[in-house]
Amino acid sequence: MERAEAGRDGERSRADTLRGRLDAAEDDLRQAREAADQARQHASDAEEAIEAARRADAEWKERGRWTRLRTAWRGE
Fold it and tell me: pTM for the whole thing?
């Protein structure tokens, strides 16, 4: 009977250890998902900024050379 209790206690200890490792792995996964979500948001923000810069550049080029020079000369 003592062997059975010792075996049971050993299995409980092993189960507790595995539960702790599983909880730690779940925390790591949650943090990785949050980091991935933040990275996606930063990438989206960067894409929007790039598109805005492209639009501004296209608008600038559409103005014509003399208009651009006059605008630059005035510091506008």
Answer: 0.60
Phi-psi category of 64—alpha, beta or left, where left has phi over 0 and alpha has psi -120 to 50? left
Range of the domain at 62: 2-74
DSSP assigned state of 16: H
Radius of gyration of the chain (CA): 31
And the tokens for 73?
A: 């000369």
Of the pLDDT bands very low, low, confident and very high (cuts 50, 70, 90), residue 8 is confident
Tokens 């050993």 map to which residue?
Answer: 10
Distance of alpha carbon 49 from alpha carbon 61, whole angstroms: 18
